[in-house]
Amino acid sequence: MSLLQSLKRRLAGSAPAPERRPLVPFKLEAIDAAFALPAVRSVADLGGVWAVDAGYTFYALERHGAERAVLVDDDITPPVRERARNFGQLELLEQDFGLERTPADVGPIGVVLLFDVLLHQVDPDWDTILRRYAPHAQAFAIANPMWDASPGTVRLLDLGEERYRSAVPPQDNLEGLYDRLDEVKPDRGKPWRDVHDVWQWGITDAELRARMADLGFTAAWAERRGRWRGLADFEDCAYVFHRA
pTM score, two decimals? Predict the structure, then answer.
């Protein structure tokens, strides 16, 4: 990232992009399980740029020969654009995947990837995201820290500052967060309480499965891998749901 880009992000209230992280084997296994389904030959990766430069999109293209791929992110980085030139079947959509129009822009798709993004989605909420994409998808591959500290799904900010801080990982933008919840974040055009830059939801396994069942999807594959990065209230989980 250039100095100018970094300055613009700081003025807008966003932290600089993190160093690129290695791809998580758990998530690669979810992609493998999705492409093992007969109806899955294409992929839409929602919010897949952050920290991995769309590595999961490119894995689906290179490992599984996806016939069509759509990467949707509101910040597509230069390295992603450069690598994308090697794949004529890859479409880059630089826009918010939560916009009401975006599912139609993506169109019919085999599997929708939602990796570590559902818990951040407010206005529209995480379950609205699923409902909007469900008519277009044959399957969903979801990896998400799942809440198991209470029987039901919770809006984390409603827990109060002390409990919120004890539940979520440390982040620079937590400092003073509760003092600016109703302040509009300039680069998002939303108040801080509704932006995806902070942790928003504790989603339970039972509620995710129930929402998917309501949409006509059933679990084809699911794995649990213990505590998510050592957090006491979240379990590391991944799923593949397919149209029943």
Answer: 0.91
